[in-house]
């Protein structure tokens, strides 16, 4: 390797301190071959340098702990180990007795591979470094390190610390030196970088003595050493002279935005740098860092310039070409910066140039080497172009237009592998926007060059961001930032497998885990599970399926919200990408990239969140309230802009609890610094977010909305609103169950001097009673004033007094009183009632018992509260009656519901009597006759006999505790005769003989039926008599003359036999049968006196009873079935002349009603 190589000496005797702290001596003979060789890139270091101590195992294997003696512990301080050995680590074992600085190197597995130990030069001194094993066997020769103080003069014309370039201890040199970094896993291939020729040693200041402008001398040179073969990146880059890379301009400056090619005058390193000086230092891994500084003057403008070369520590095999500029004058300087290089690879100056894709840059390939020109780096160029190099210095020929203001290939966004130049002398130019540096301001520029060889993986990582919220290009807390992480294999014939991204998200960002996406090698977007992000370690880790081949890209994107801690800061975020080089010993290849996100400093807003229960009529918003399921809740959020400038927009995030309904609308009121509304709008939440319009300077925004508390098991629902990570206070809703209050109602008879209140007592009319109502709040929150006590008193309670309410504390002491009238049977409580155990309320109310027929008066009470209505059990008054009642009813016997007169009610003192008699129903209402009566409360209506019914009579009723009921039943009365209209004696001859012509019997169902005349008596109240007479003698039709005259059956006599009285139908009221005043045999004389057939005389009722009117059909029947043919006859004497004609006579049946 390039640097100092220490060969073993013949013999060495050294003191070795073991792990137990005991000093021992050991020796290494001439025949012993050292297992370990220490390699250093130089022998002399400056205080503050990081030293790479490379430990070469010489193909041996260490199977036990290794002890490295770093000498005096004050001179060198160990930092870390860089190794491909799995699990290797070190432990410092400083010995206080000897002052020795011992490092114990150990591993879980045998140490087989070389490793590098990084140590820091702490103080001035000289150190001899050796190594030994646990068994005190010396296995190395000595490596000597000298540490000196910084020799740089304090009176330099140019200060090497003008810029914060990350190197703390610069040393001025008169000759250029070559920096070198080994390719990973290789001991024969190195990436080198210097100013001028490949061997260094160039007078870095000599170019300032040249009087003419040209681009030759101390130009940037980047090349690799591959088994001592030099492969340059730029034309003539393999030369050893000071004029190497003589056709590239390197970094250049223009002072006009439309300036075109002016070659040497634009080049910084060409010449004419005032106070040009060369410095070297070392990075954190001990790599050489070189820079040239000086004052660039042209067109009367001066800038301090620093051009710096250092290897990338990100894992890529690349050199960072960097430029720092500072305006050290008193006037602002406007300028433009670019870099132009004439490329060549492996001796070929006409290699086609292609696009790297994703606007990452360009590359050329000359097998087996590949040159990468990387633009997508921190502070990298915005525009870039490829052009054919000519001697006229065509550095802006690839832009449109062909001057500094032109645009380049970045506008085309070319795909990976697209050829931008074919078979010509390729070169490239990259440039940054035209800018202005105020006095004292500095700026940094960077563009990387990488070289690799097949089949190595050439990993590259990139990280970018895009602000998806801001509209003015500034980043603010609360903005939504989209990050893109890219990994690219820029190798040749290579394969990068098991690739994974690791990104530790800075605490200034809150990642949206639902936004994580992977874009694979074919450009397909894949959604990544939120579990890829570890909330504890803040690491986002995404593994890429399949290997990443040459020129392939993979990306990870995610969104994150900037938190308030980012205000006024530049937040750096680093992504690490690691994978396996499948073609080179399966070694791990990792690469990293950073992105800096600058945030403007903002005055943080003030957020105030309040809540109120609308259902419970909360008067004001407060930070805390109580609510029950189903209550409507109102929220109020005040966003106060504490800045003296308008906030262009803001995103409010208000994640409501899942047990709250989503609001239908949010009313937004914008107010100026005086609190006056300037505009308003109604918005709706989108994913718990609202985007507000511009907020006036020193103004505010007031947001109000309503929601409903859903069914929940939570006891508390908290709500916090946010703008970025500025959080409001907690608006708290204490969830209380709607448990109705418990009410206990009791009663006491004041008149009877009851000892205490009871749920049941006895009272009489005019007694004064008092109710006591105990109210216990069993809900989980206090009952607020305004609860409604309802008590609907029985109508038979009078003289209702004012209610008196005592409010008690937990010790049952009265803390408040209330006396008020009842209004519509209710009273509004003017005090609250705390939860059970903290207090209660007791209400008292008096009343009197009025005249009543009730035996019981029940009374209950209820209380309507926010938690529901509670009701007491009934307080029972047993009424001791002093009066009785008699009810008399008048009903149709056939229909109980038919009232013939209204019921009569008679009240009287218990024990007194009253005569009850039936009513006479007016004739206008019909001919109704009282029939029977009952003193039963509910007699059987279908019965006509005792015990339900008796003959209607008067009652003497005694008033009793129980209600007495007397019922009279009536029938509608009438009377009539039922008689045959015609008797037909048949046809007979006219022979004159003494003969009795008999009336043949009627027949029914082949049975003979005797003739009869009947009286139908329906409940008449008097007696009656049935008579019959013959109005005339049998005669012919008057209109039918015989011998000029009407003919009569002279001396013909109607004769009746077997007469008897028969009851055809009756009820059970007690009717008596009629009697006949004639015998069963009688004759009628034409035009003679009437014959009495039946007489009905009602029997005299008992005192207080009414006539046994009854219902009956009574028949005077002539014979029975056997006598029917011979019971009615017409006797005609022999002497009576008979003519062949029809003879008729008329009988008159009469019914005489007794007075």
From TrEMBL:
Transmembrane segments: none annotated. Gene3D superfamilies: 2.60.40.740, Putative peptidoglycan bound protein (lpxtg motif) (3.10.20.320). InterPro entries: Adhesion_dom_sf, DUF11_rpt, WxL_dom. SUPFAM superfamilies: Bacterial adhesins. It holds the Pfam family WxL. Residues 982-1152 form the WxL domain. This is WxL domain-containing protein. The lineage of its organism: Bacteria, Bacillati, Bacillota, Bacilli, Lactobacillales.
